Amino acid sequence: MKRLAIEGGVPVRSKLLPYGHQWIDDEDIAAVAEVLEADWITQGPKVGEFERKVAEYCGAKYAVAVSSGTAALHAACAASGLSLGDEAIITPLTFSATANAVVYCRAQPVFADIEEDTLNIDLKEIGKKLSPRTRAILPIDFAGHPCDIDEIKALAEARGLIVIEDASHALGAEYKGKRIGSLSDMTIFSFHPVKHITTGEGGMVLTNSEEFYEKLKIFRHHGITRDKSKLSKDKGGWYYEIHNLGYNLRLSDFQCALGISQMKKLDGFIQRRREIATNYNQAFAEMEEIITPVEKDYVKAVYHIYVIQLRLGKLKVGRGQIFEALTAENIGVNVHYIPVHLQPFYQREFGCKEGDYPKVERYYDGAITLPIFPKMSDEDVDDVIEAVRKVISFYGNG
Ligand SMILES: *Cc1c(COP(=O)(O)O)cnc(C)c1O
């Protein structure tokens, strides 16, 4: 057996392989350069063009580009009217931005535990958390595997709740043959460099509702409205009014030019991610120390991340040691995510505590994210498989 790098052996790779990475090519650079030499660099014609591209790809009527995925969540929460006294049901297994957005609107996040197979929010757990104050549900499509949105929507419609889908992981994913992006009241995407396409920072809200669309645009631009039918007076071309507080959440034109260029490559990116996931699934199928991700037959998952779960009963060490050992082999592993209810802020402000959500906590104890991104070569994929085999067989107790 080869000696582990953590014990002074030779690492599988000489240089660190990150867990995620953008793909920027000459075409992307040329697209950005063209805008930098044009008249508009902040919000200009490329913003609308990018919005139409994404909306069309996802089958949604309207799209509003904003400065980040977090800004998209914030805008969607605000447009849904979420405010003081309201509750929003969310999964603890998400990036904390999902919960933070609820808090930005002064509403209360209420967590509901996950399904153990898909790792998405569990409908039955949502049912237990409903109250007269519930106003919205924010499911996420964890790792790019769509949540069971029909069931969540049926529950929401029966109760008059708004569904804001955090699809930061799921651009291009499909649910029952339909692309994610038009299935919820509002769907949000992130264009952070580790996501499926990037604009540096950036995000978008998609919706089929004209009412939400108008509210989102106003919220993105300080709350300013120039729509004559809404103004209390007509004072002239310079005049506008602010009826509700907004922010500056605008995305710049050169970022949107990058986004448009990236959209051309999206299907190829997804295909490569799915290929890598298939290779991992096959390589790890025989290893009883590891649980690999599921893909339900009614979805097409897009593998924003590839998470393995360790069966801790079959290992001599915990996740921490496996994580350190893989890092020493120069495999850039990560953990997605520390459940939000374990964050000190959420414990202090909302009274959450350890033990509240046993399924997500059990998941978290054994979860490790392996590298997956379109630019990975076949050799990179083989290195990850070799390192996982090396480390797991060393620490396995079988
Ligand atoms: C990335 C991400 C966000 C936030 O996106 P930013 O663009 O980084 O602000 C929100 N929710 C989830 C689930 C994410 O993965």
What does this structure look like?
The protein is of the alpha/beta class and 398 residues long. The chain has 13 helices and 15 strands. The chain has helices at residues 26-36, 45-58, 69-79, 97-104, 123-129, 149-159, 210-220, 253-263, 266-284, 319-328, 344-350, 358-366, 378-395, and strands at 62-66, 87-90, 108-111, 134-138, 162-166, 174-175, 178-179, 186-190, 203-207, 224-225, 241-242, 290-291, 299-300, 306-310, 367-370. Strands 1-9-8-5-4-2-3 form a 7-stranded mixed beta sheet, sandwiched between helices. Strand 4, helix 6 (149-159) and strand 5 form a beta-alpha-beta unit. Helix 3 runs parallel beside helix 4 (97-104). It is globular, with a radius of gyration of 22 Å. The chain binds pyridoxal-5'-phosphate. The site of pyridoxal-5'-phosphate has 14 residues, from helix 3 and helix 4.
Distance linking N and C termini: 15 Å
Q: How many strand elements?
A: 15
Radius of gyration: 22 Å
Poorly predicted residue ranges: none
Average the pLDDT over all residues and give the rounded result.
97
The secondary-structure element order is HHEHEHEHEHEEEEEHEEHHEEEHHHEH
Bound molecules: pyridoxal-5'-phosphate
Strand content: 5-15%
Q: Which word captures the global form? A: globular
Order of neighbouring strands in the sheet with most strands: 1-9-8-5-4-2-3
Helix-strand category: alpha/beta
Question: Please, how many helices?
Answer: 13
Helix content: 25-40%
Major β-sheet profile: 7 strands, mixed
